[in-house]
Specification:
single chain, about 170 residues, mainly alpha, 3 helices, about 90% helix, rod-shaped
């Protein structure tokens, strides 16, 4: 069984067509791989850009949160100081209130028991110095509070001077 020239030519043509098809498939495969790689690299680049953008936004958000935290601490500190000042002024008001009540009481026996009145007034004066009661402490509250504090402190001094004078005169 031999192969004649016609069959040989036909085999040669088939072989050539198979080679062409193989080359075409290889070329198409390489193009597809190249295109897929380009798409993958593009996607990777997009993801990297996305990550960079997210990191920038996270850093910016962190900075803003830090700023908000500082503002929050400042507000808290201010409110703490205000509360402490209000408590201090409140205690000053109470001291003045009790001193006024004592002065009213001392007024009742100033003429008859002058020595006792002087002693009580000295105790009040010592408490004023000890607790640092000053009109200045009421400066941030109101003018009326300042005037009231000044009138109580003036009344204490006036009663003390009057009592001392009465002791000297007797």
């Amino acid at each position: 069984m031999g192969i004649d020239a016609y069959q040989l030519k036909r085999l040669s043509n088939i072989s050539s067509e198979v080679n062409n098809i193989r080359s075409s498939v290889q070329r198409d495969t390489q193009n597809a791989v190249a295109t897929g790689t380009a798409i993958t690299l593009s996607a990777i680049s997009s993801v990297a850009d996305l990550q960079v953008g997210m990191m920038h936004n996270l850093r910016e958000m962190d900075s803003k949160l830090e700023t908000l935290e500082n503002i929050s601490w400042n507000i808290s500190s201010y409110l703490d100081r205000k509360e402490m000042r209000d408590q201090f002024v409140g205690s000053m008001r109470m001291i003045l209130h009790y001193m006024e009540r004592e002065l009213d009481e001392i007024d009742q026996y100033l003429e008859t028991h002058t020595e006792y009145a002087v002693m009580k007034l000295e105790i009040i004066r010592d408490r004023i110095a000890e607790r640092d009661v000053k009109v200045d402490h009421f400066a941030q509250v109101s003018m009326e509070e300042m005037k009231h504090a000044q009138s109580v402190l003036d009344r204490i001094e006036s009663m003390y001077q009057i009592s001392l004078q009465k002791l000297r005169d007797s």
